[in-house]
Amino acid sequence: MGSGTSPKGSPGGGNATLGNEKKGKAKPEGPLLEDVQTCCGCRFPLLVALFQLLLGIAVAGVAFLMVAISPSLLARETPHWAGIIMCVVSLVGFILFCITRVPDERASTQFIIKLLYFFLCTMGLVISVLVIAFQCYHYALTSSYSCKETEEDCRCTLDPEDPIARTFTYRGVTDCSAIDSTLPMYYLLQMLLNLAQAIVCLLGAFLIWKHRYQVFFAGLQMGSPSVQNWQKV
């Protein structure tokens, strides 16, 4: 009986298996992208910046409508500046959305834009709170007005029976109903818009703070020196 021989493997089979294992262990080179931070299914800060832009346009638009009632209204009564600032904040948010996201330790530009956006969101929050305070005061003031028309102006007082009561004159107003009813409605609308604006700014600042300080890159390098992997802790 002839002795049996085991079949030989194909030439280079072991080398092919070893090559496949090396390929499986190979790691992609190049900059490691940061984990995408999402908000309501969209990448941050797309929705936040979009809401900031819409609210800023709305606040500025309502303020310009208030200026059209009478040129005597003060800047604190017509907060178009708050809407313009919010539009600038939203533009910085869109820039942050468009740039490539890599770990903060490896992208100084991204870190600076994040810091700027955080600062602007905080400033927008403070400005919105100030606007709400001013609008509340003027809303309570105009709600107790007693107005009468004098030529091309509208003169309002808090107490018509008091001869030394403080008088407010609105030039260029021929119909005092614009001061009695329309202006308080605009004040109330500004309060609601700026309240929403403050909430959006608070959300944007909180999300940046949470992503930066609750989950951050510790800078631990693993693997070969040519390939850098950053471990989150």
Automatic annotation (TrEMBL):
Residues 1-26 are annotated as: Disordered. Keywords: Membrane, Transmembrane, Transmembrane helix. The keyword Transmembrane helix applies. It is a multi-pass membrane protein. Its main location: membrane. The chain crosses the membrane at residues 46-69, 81-99, 111-134, 187-209. One of its GO terms (cellular component) is dystrophin-associated glycoprotein complex. The keyword Disulfide bond does not apply. Coiled coil: none annotated. It is found in: Membrane. This is Sarcospan. It comes from Phoxinus phoxinus (Eurasian minnow).
